[in-house]
Design goal:
It is elongated and about 85 Å long. The chain has one domain: Orthogonal Bundle (Lysozyme). With about 160 residues, the chain is mostly helical. Helix content is about 45%, strand content about 5%. The chain has a three-stranded antiparallel β-sheet. Helix 2 packs parallel to helix 4, helix 3 packs across helix 4 and helix 3 runs parallel beside helix 6.
């Protein structure tokens, strides 16, 4: 009986300590996000889009590549070469660890240093459209493609003129 009293006191004390240092909230162990399995985008008939498609050895531009071409306009070919150099699989929900401890996320591999911006979150970087929109915003702000290492070191050129 005394042993049960001591055990009960210990559990109560541990519970009070835990309650004073931590808070608990319930959440669903499963997160479900539905999205359409089909992406529809307007076809591009610009010179930049035609050159970008030629770089893909006869494969047509995907809907996301078409969308990127609409955003980047005349620089579509370079933008898509950078995208392929950064993310050859062309996946939206993809990330890459960098040696400096940061991560690159999504279609254009946007670095996590940009998450400090108001209104931008990780979910946005994993959404193809939002990722392309933000890549274009970076391109406009910086006056070009300098935010991407594959542009700065020339690796994107391997994806042009194939």
């Amino acid at each position: 009986m005394i042993l049960l009293l001591i055990a009960g006191t210990a559990v109560t004390a541990a519970g009070l300590w835990f309650h004073s240092h931590y808070t608990l909230s319930w959440q669903s162990p499963v997160v479900v996000r539905f999205q359409s399995p089909i992406v529809i985008a307007e076809r591009m008939e610009s010179e930049g889009a035609a050159e970008a498609q030629a770089d893909q050895q006869g494969r047509g531009l995907s809907a996301w590549q078409q969308y990127a071409c609409r955003k980047f306009g005349a620089d579509c070919r370079v933008a898509l070469a950078i995208q392929r150099a950064e993310n050859a699989q062309g996946k939206c929900e993809i990330y890459h660890y960098n040696s400096d401890g940061t991560l690159d996320w999504g279609y254009f591999q946007i670095n996590t240093v940009h998450l400090k911006r108001p209104g931008l979150n990780l979910r946005d970087l994993l959404d193809c459209k939002a990722n392309i929109d933000f890549a274009y915003q970076l391109y406009r702000e910086k006056g070009g493609f300098t935010p991407w290492s594959t542009f700065n070191d020339g690796r994107y050129r391997r994806y042009m003129g194939r």
